[in-house]
Design goal:
Length: 231
C-alpha cells in the first residue's frame, strides 16, 4: 500500500536562497533534512531519494501545493548529500504568481519548502517507536510554502484516495465528521461547525418538504375517497 504525506521545512531548516539576478529567478534549498524526526514520528534516511534521482524525476514547482493551478516554476536539480535533499529550481517569469512568490522570498515573508512524497510499507523500519523511511517511491511536487520563521519542521498531511475511503467508512459520530473535515478537507473548527450546521439545516428542510408532500398526498387520497362516496 502506498502512503503519501507532505513534509514542510521552515526557513532555517530549508535554507532557501536566491541567485541568478534579474535574468533568472533561481531558488536553492533543502527540501528534506535527513534524520529529522517529524511530528508524525518518522524520519527519512540518507539515500532514500537516490533511485528517484537516478530515474531523472523532475517534480513540479507550486506555491502552497496548489497543484490545480499553473506551476510557478521547475526544479531542474536534485541531489542528496549528508544533510538532506538539496534542490535548485527556476521560477517562471511571466507567471504572475511566480513574480509574487519571488518578491515574497526576497522580502523573507515566504520561507519554506514542502515535498509531497509517497512510500511503501516495505520500505519503512521501526526502532524505538520511530519509523525510518529507507526509500521514497514518489516525489510528486515540491512547493514553496508560507511558513513561520522557526527551526521546527512543520507537517501537513496528504492522504491517498484509499486512505480517504477508509476514513469515510469509519465515520460514526458528528465529532468524527468534524475531525475528518479538519484533517482531510482542511477546514478550520469554525468552518467545520458552520458546514455541519448548514448540512443539518438542509436535511431538516428536505424532511419538512417530505412531510409536506406526504401530507398533501394523504389529503388528496381522502378527497378522492369522499368524491367517490358522493357519486
Amino acid at each position: 500500500m502506498m502512503r503519501k504525506q507532505t513534509l514542510s521545512l521552515s526557513l532555517s531548516a530549508a535554507e532557501i536562497d536566491l541567485s541568478g539576478g534579474e535574468h533568472e529567478w533561481r531558488v536553492n534549498g533543502y527540501a528534506t533534512k535527513f534524520g529529522n524526526v517529524n511530528s508524525y514520528g518518522f524520519k527519512i534516511a540518507q539515500g532514500a531519494y537516490s533511485d528517484l534521482i537516478k530515474s531523472g524525476v523532475k517534480p513540479l514547482m507550486f506555491f502552497n501545493h496548489e497543484s490545480f493551478a499553473v506551476p510557478i516554476g521547475r526544479w531542474d536539480t536534485l541531489e542528496e548529500n549528508a544533510r538532506g535533499l538539496k534542490v535548485s529550481g527556476v521560477l517562471t517569469q511571466g507567471v504572475s504568481l511566480a513574480s509574487d512568490v519571488y518578491a515574497a522570498l526576497r522580502a523573507g515573508t515566504v520561507d519554506g519548502l514542502s515535498v509531497s512524497i509517497g512510500w511503501r510499507s516495505e520500505d519503512q523500519q521501526e526502532q524505538d517507536g520511530v519509523l525510518t523511511l529507507s526509500k521514497i517511491a514518489s516525489l510528486d511536487e515540491i512547493s514553496i510554502v508560507t511558513m513561520p520563521s522557526d527551526s521546527k519542521a512543520r507537517i501537513s498531511q496528504v492522504l491517498s484516495a484509499d486512505d480517504i475511503d477508509e476514513r469515510i467508512e469509519a465515520l460514526a459520530t458528528v465529532r468524527d465528521l468534524e475531525v475528518f473535515l479538519k484533517e482531510v478537507a482542511r477546514l478550520s473548527k469554525r468552518q467545520s461547525g458552520w458546514l455541519l450546521s448548514k448540512a443539518k439545516a438542509c436535511f431538516a428542510a428536505d424532511t419538512r418538504r417530505d412531510d409536506e408532500q406526504k401530507a398533501l398526498q394523504e389529503a388528496q387520497e381522502i378527497l378522492s375517497r369522499m368524491l367517490k362516496k358522493m357519486e
